[in-house]
Amino acid sequence: MTLSTEKLSLQEFWRQEDTSDCCYELVDGNLVLMPLGTGLHGDIIKFLSQQFDAEVERLGVDFTALQASVGIQSPPGTWDTCRIPDVTVLRLEQWQSLRTREAVIALNEPPPQLVVEVVSETTQSTDYRAKRAEYSVLDIPEYWIVEQQQHPFRQCVTVCLLLEGLYESVEFAALDQIESKLFAELWLTATQVLQAHL
Fold this sequence. Notes:
By secondary structure, the chain is of the alpha+beta class. The protein has a single domain, classed as tt1808, chain A. Helix content is 27%, strand content 29%. The strands form 3 sheets. Strands 3-6-8-9-10-11 form a 6-stranded mixed sheet, sandwiched between helices. It has a 3-stranded mixed sheet with strand order 5-4-7, with no helix packed on it. It has a two-stranded antiparallel sheet with strand order 1-2. The longest helix has 21 residues.
């Protein structure tokens, strides 16, 4: 749902005051409401964030996983766009650099290492098409799309890996072990993710 009547720049987006406890993305200069997902949607986000952080700690690497708290500026079109993935994995040093400013990764900064979008009924087209195109142009190496829709029934985890500027995708369902380039030793099945066993 698009809410803004006047186009906004990225700077104006940052300065927007909102007292409704809603979350928005800036898409082509428009405020677009990010609807609340189901409880399972939230559990999947929390589960993946915890799994990534546990793997980061096990490996001793300098990454961190964040839940819907980092904006990513998209390539300029006519107007500014700023996406907020459900989960963002980025270097700890980069996250720390955002402590004293808006938590938005600008176009001139390194991209996140991995982003995740959990599909809801209203975001399916955006997650599979618009965000997939934007994230590939931004050179984000790995993009997970988690879909646990009941109607129509479609439950899978699609992992998109960047290859020569385009995403190559593989779908994982049921007991398939998800294959991640960033977390090559992470052992997770699609079912574990889709059911979010916390």
